[in-house]
Every structure is written in structure tokens, then in C-alpha cells.
Write a structure and sequence with these properties.
single chain; alpha+beta; six-stranded mixed β-sheet; 35% helix
């Protein structure tokens, strides 16, 4: 891990909150993510199951968390099972948690090696009335491969067919959306690293550089400051590439007169930043580019005002759509007649702004939260309007990360250059 140990109070709080939502006399089990093969003898870099990390703080493969608050044996009310290290693993793979280190990281007293899991589970499971098992219920995800949680459910149902099974995901959906102070601090750190990478890019970019050279500057700053790396595959989309929403080839030359659309963020301690910016390759926006830029900026600022507690998701997006419609008319991209004749399913503004404005942010970049649950204090959401004009080879997107507080909202990226003039000033030698 590149980040300092997180205060265990975060994970103790999270487990206590989870336990309060369980039915009486219930046992819950969480599995680490799989280690996915990359090539013949290599795996992809391991990424922990966010629910397991949320409840334990353990950032290691082959980990199991067992929670049984009403267990008749107090020793097994909270148990962590870890992969046991040895001299061979120490030489070839390096650091693995000792029992003491896992206890310090998680705040859990009962730590066992993985080989003890089956025996301990079997000794207590028959006393539980309900078994809570976990799956990835993020509504942006559909699995094609039966990952570890799915395989474990099949094993449990085969071995203990008469138990009553429950889903942990609905509980996690409610808990993870509300960020604690420590989670906010970690997200703010990810945003700060992202800021420094963006300023670095502003000073580096000029006509003739390749998109991948800019990507290299970004990852340099992320790793230099202790970030794990990219929160997601970065988008460095110059010119026409900006009209491909998920463009990540990042292999083209940045040319005089073009605008580059950036969408990148740092991951720090498993928490993520998610930022979009658009900058002129030559350091100066053209008149038209600035018009479109300021239109997107206006929508962004107005949408941010709407990110408050009790806002309903669908209503929010409809309101943002109305704001965007006005800007597109002003830019001459759509007409009042287009708006008059639009369909409810595909309003006129969707021709130039076809994606959503906001999503929850946290351990997952598109964080686990209720799509139909009103916004609440403690939510962190992105605000990311864009205007994409293929016929002009121009795409502009701007995105900041917003925390809802009891007194309104707080922009976690307020110190990242955003105004067109500020960007131009830095690109031309300003601080």
C-alpha cells in the first residue's frame, strides 16, 4: 500500500452501522475480490472488493470477513480470515498482513488464517437464523464471469441448503452513500493529487505533444504523491476525439487550434476523484471555443446549486436539461422549434449532451447508491455537463466533485483551475 494506515475507527463505525441493519441472529460473510489473470503467468493488479474494504480496511487478496453480532461464542462475532504468509511468499511477493497488523488496521480482535474458515463457520452457522451474502448490485454492472461472491453463494447453498439467505447489498447501498469525515478526507486527498496533476498538464501541453505524453505526466504526479494510480482509465481526447465519450486510445497528436477534453482522477487509499476539464492546445481558446466552454461552465454552476439534500435524481436531471437547452439555443445548435417538437424520451438537448450530469462517488468511481433515493447530507456527487459538436470537431466537458452538507454543498475541487481565463493564464506562464 502506498497510503498511510487509515484510522481503524472508520471501519469500526462502518461495521457497527452494518450490524444495526441486520435481522436478529444473523451471520454475514464478505469475500475479497478475485485475482484476475492478465496473461500466461501474470495477474492484473489486485483491487479489493469495496464492501469488504469498507467494513474491514483490509487491502489484500484472499480475505474473508465474518460478522455475527449475536453469536453465542463472543470470539466469533467479528472474525477476519487472512492468507497465511510464509518464507516463500515473503521472498516472491513481499508484504502480507500479520495478524497483529490486520488487527491494527481493522479493529477486529479475532484474526485467523484462511485455512480455519470452514471449521469456524461450520461450528457457528447452525445457530444463526439468517445468512447474509454479498454480490455486486451496482446497477451499472452486469457480470459475464461467475466471480468469487457468486461461486461462494453456490457453495453455501449446496452445503447449507435449509438456511435462510439474505442480501447484504441493500444495506451496503444505503450505508456507502453517506460519507463519514474520514472518507471525506480521503476523497479530498484524491482531489488534491488530481489538482496537482492537472496544473502539471497545463504547464506541459503545447501543439505537437501526444495524448499519451500527457497521460504520462498525469500518472507521474499520481504516483509521486502516493496515489494508487488512475481511478479509472483516463481520457485524453484532443480535437474530434472529444466526441467519443469513453475515448481512451490516447495515441493522437494534439494539434494547433484544437481543444483537449480531459477526464481523469487519482485513486488514493481506495477512494477516488473524478475530474473533467477542457483546455486549448495552444493556450488560447478561440472565440467559438470559449463560447461553448462558458456555456458548459454556466450549466455546471447552475447544476451545482441544485445538488442539495432531498433533491430527487430524475427531477434534478430534468432541471439540468432545461438549463442546457437554453444554452444550446444561445449557441445556435438547436432552435425553439426543435424544443417544441421534441419527444419526452429524447429531448432536443440530447443531440449535444447525451449523458447524465451526476453520479455518486466514493470507493467506486460510480459509487454504490440508490438511483431513486433522494440526495442526502454526506453524499459526494459529480457534476459533469458537456457539449459535443462533431461537426465542429469540438467537445467540452467540465466536472467537479460535490459534497452535500447540512448547510448546502461543498465543492471538493474548488481549488482546481476552472475558469477559461485562469486556464489560459497558467498555460501562458502564470502561476
Amino acid at each position: 500500500m502506498k497510503y498511510p494506515t487509515i484510522d481503524q475507527s472508520l471501519f469500526i463505525l462502518n461495521r457497527n452501522n452494518f450490524a444495526k441493519e441486520l435481522k436478529n441472529n444473523s451471520l454475514a460473510i464478505f469475500q475479497a475480490n478475485d485475482e484476475f489473470p492478465r496473461s500466461g503467468d501474470q495477474n492484473f493488479i489486485f483491487k479489493q472488493n469495496p464492501d469488504l474494504f469498507y467494513l474491514s480496511g483490509i487491502d489484500q487478496e484472499q480475505t474473508i470477513l465474518l460478522l455475527y453480532p449475536d453469536c453465542p461464542n463472543p470470539l466469533y462475532r467479528q472474525v477476519l480470515f487472512l492468507r497465511q504468509t510464509n518464507d516463500y511468499i515473503k521472498v516472491w511477493e513481499g508484504y502480507k498482513y500479520t495478524k497483529e497488523q490486520a488487527k491494527e488496521a481493522s479493529g477486529i480482535e479475532s484474526i485467523y488464517w484462511l485455512e480455519d474458515f470452514d471449521n469456524i463457520l461450520h461450528s457457528i452457522i447452525h445457530y444463526a437464523d439468517n445468512i447474509y451474502l454479498n454480490t455486486n448490485e451496482n446497477d451499472r454492472y452486469a457480470h459475464a464471469v461467475p466471480y468469487r461472491d457468486i461461486r461462494f453463494i453456490e457453495q453455501m447453498r449446496s452445503k447449507y441448503p435449509l438456511h435462510h439467505y439474505e442480501r447484504s447489498a441493500p444495506i451496503m447501498r444505503g450505508l456507502r452513500a453517506i460519507k463519514s469525515d474520514i472518507e471525506i478526507e480521503l476523497t479530498q486527498k484524491a482531489c488534491a493529487i488530481t489538482r496537482d496533476a492537472f496544473v502539471r498538464v497545463l504547464k506541459f501541453t503545447k501543439p505537437g505533444v501526444k495524448e499519451y505524453e500527457i497521460e504520462a505526466e498525469i500518472i507521474h504526479e499520481f504516483i509521486r504523491q502516493g496515489g494508487t494510480g488512475h481511478a479509472y482509465t483516463p481520457i485524453i481526447a484532443s480535437g474530434h476525439n472529444a466526441n467519443i465519450l469513453h475515448y481512451n486510445d490516447n495515441n493522437q497528436e494534439c494539434k494547433e487550434g484544437d481543444v483537449i477534453l480531459f477526464d481523469f482522477g487519482a485513486e488514493y487509499a481506495n477512494y477516488n476523484a473524478d475530474m473533467s476539464r477542457s483546455i486549448p492546445v495552444n493556450g488560447r481558446f478561440s472565440k467559438r471555443q470559449k463560447e461553448v466552454y462558458n456555456a458548459v461552465l454556466h450549466v455546471m454552476k447552475e447544476a451545482t446549486k441544485l445538488i442539495v439534500a432531498d433533491t430527487v435524481w430524475n427531477t434534478y436531471h430534468e432541471q439540468v436539461g432545461e438549463i442546457m437547452t437554453e444554452q444550446l439555443i444561445n449557441l445556435g445548435l438547436i432552435s425553439t422549434a426543435d424544443v417544441k417538437n421534441q419527444s419526452a424520451q429524447w429531448p432536443a438537448y440530447k443531440k449535444y449532451f447525451m449523458h447524465g450530469t451526476s453520479h455518486h462517488l466514493g470507493i467506486d468511481v460510480h459509487d454504490f447508491a440508490g438511483r431513486y433515493t433522494p440526495f442526502a447530507v454526506g453524499n459526494i456527487l459529480t457534476v459533469e455537463p458537456g457539449i459535443y459538436i462533431p461537426e465542429e470537431g469540438l467537445g467540452i466537458r467540465l466536472e467537479n466533485n460535490i459534497l452535500i452538507t447540512s448547510s448546502g454543498n461543498l465543492d471538493l475541487m474548488a481549488d482546481i483551475p476552472l475558469e477559461a481565463e485562469e486556464i489560459e493564464d497558467i498555460m501562458n506562464g502564470g502561476n
